[in-house]
Design brief:
This protein is mostly helical. It has 7 helices and no strands. Pfam families: Rce1-like (PF02517).
């Protein structure tokens, strides 16, 4: 029997053009499932109840904060795409592959799943432990496809900080979930229908 050595593992850069649609979706669902699992375990280790964190608020104030931040973020994103050179905002083509030919119902499901899973982990668990600044640094780092360019990396950091701010201000996770959902939904729809036209 051959002995396994960690030094034999070789990591190669993945080329998005070699990803099949099935593999891309499988990767998305597995990573979001892991994100949800880690978030729930972390919250439980903090001796907190995930159902309390996801308790729907009695006030509709969270709607204003979620919609307001989403509107600001979409305007800034629009300005960045028209001011900054396209290659500086490149994510390696992953978003085009993910949303380019996806039906509307699937874009809605992806946006909702990502918003809930990521906000539960980052705002619900990590921000509780480390605060919005360090959470936003980690959030920017895990969006590794943007790390080659400082503008999208900075924008992901600022977006995350904004999500953390509205979570603190409203006291409910549903404000950043709503904002995150709207941003991903709008971005997915723009990619989907821009390509079609």
């Amino acid at each position: 029997m051959k002995k396994f050595k960690f030094g034999d593992i070789k990591i190669k850069k993945a080329d998005p053009q070699h990803l099949t649609d099935k593999l891309l979706l499988l990767n998305l669902y597995i990573t979001q499932g892991l994100t949800l699992f880690i978030g729930l375990i972390w919250i439980l280790l903090q001796k907190r109840n995930p159902f309390d964190i996801l308790n729907f608020p009695g006030s509709d104030k969270f709607l204003l904060w979620g919609l307001g931040l989403a509107g600001i973020m979409l305007i800034v994103d629009f300005l960045l795409t028209h001011i900054v050179p396209e290659e500086s905002m490149d994510d390696g083509g992953i978003n085009d592959l993910l949303f380019g030919r996806r039906p509307l119902w699937h874009i809605i499901i992806i946006a909702a799943m990502v918003a809930i899973c990521e906000e539960l982990l980052f705002r619900g668990a990590i921000q509780y432990a480390f605060g919005p600044y360090w959470t936003s640094i980690l959030f920017a780092v895990i969006h590794v496809r943007y790390l080659r360019h400082w503008i999208p990396t900075g924008w992901v950091f600022l977006s995350s900080y904004g999500l953390g701010y509205i979570y603190i201000h409203t006291g409910t996770l549903w404000a950043p979930i709503l904002c995150h959902f709207l941003i991903d939904l709008f971005s997915g729809l723009v990619i989907r229908y821009r390509r079609e036209s």
